[in-house]
What does this fold into?
Amino acid sequence: MPTFVYMTRCDGCGHCVDICPSDIMHIDPTYRRAYNIEPNMCWECYSCVKACPQQAIDVRGYADFAPLGHSVRVHRDEQKGTIAWKIKFRNGTEKNFLSPITTKPWGQAIPKLAEVPAPTKEMRDGELLYNEPKWIRMDEGGLRTLKDAGLTMKQGVYY
Amino acid sequence: MFTINPFATLSAVIPPAVIQGYVLFMVALVAAGTLFDIIHKASAKYFFENMRRPKGRGAKPVGGGEKAAIAVQTLVVDVLASGEFCNTRRRIAHLLGMYGFVLYVAATVVMVFNPAAGAIWAQLWWLGGLMVCVGGYWFWFFIRVDVAAEGQSPLRVMRADLFVLSMLASATLGLAWAATGGGAGVLFGLYILATTVLFAGVPWSKFAHMFFKPAAAFEKRLSEADGSHENLPTLSRDDPAQQDRHSMELLKNAPMDMGLGIKREAPRHY
It folds into this structure.
């Protein structure tokens, strides 16, 4: 079910280009609006559909299993902290859903992981952590970090 | 410099009738180019068919008065205030370019057809041209999405740039021509070339967006008013019945404004 863009709705902001995990949402060189450059490679994750501030992206179902006439549209309302879906079937049946996507205001409930104490001996011996301390090298010269690998992390939005 | 009509000084070299004829020819090119664009892309046909289609799905009919109110809203919010843009920088750049272009073109027409027009028109022409340059170059080098979101070089040129580049070239060369005393020299030739490309390139450029974007904004508002809303969900947390639902229990005590999530940051993670 690859995505497509309603060109008259798109304002070319680039949020879909930014978020697409397949890197197939690009900017059209003629109209400077977003478009899906390779629908076959779209894995229908709906990231771009949800990120679009103009609700300009829709998903087209393949005709063999999603015949014409249906509709699945979504509105991710960050300000209200909800996501709403409207599903229309070919026979006119309509289903509406509304669910929370956060319970606290964005960016204000960031866990301070550096201040969390290391696991106790009981926790490490317990079945919940199993081999994890070993694989993250807790006892062999510290944790693996981006810095150790010569990498840097680009500043981004923290939720 | 800012109070002199540059087209009045030009009339010593080129007959005023020729200059006026050129302006009228450019108007005709825009009209013809827009018509060609509409017919070639069948955009008007799509627009009217799409306007008719939601009526069947619509939950309620929209009366003439309501349509007029929607048209006024579209004009005030979407057209005059560029309300479509969610990025503030893009909105400011667009407003500068739009109002600058309107002032620049209107003052040009007034000064060409009335060489005795007051100094205010020359000042408006300068102001308009400078607004186009500020908004346009800001957009061109820093804001346009293929540079900001796709990581392309700011100097990469593509067909979508035909409109903004020819508009910038027209305003920049026009101002440079007027600043160097006018006349019919090389700068004037380049200014006319850029202006001709701007108005003759309508079928290949984004020029026609100033006609179809308001139509699309009106259609969007109309679909919201008739309840069809282009099949988009209409359930909202504002509705008390939704707040009482079991799945919304986690948001019972949460503020209605949770702030911005991913929109807190511009899409620049190429």
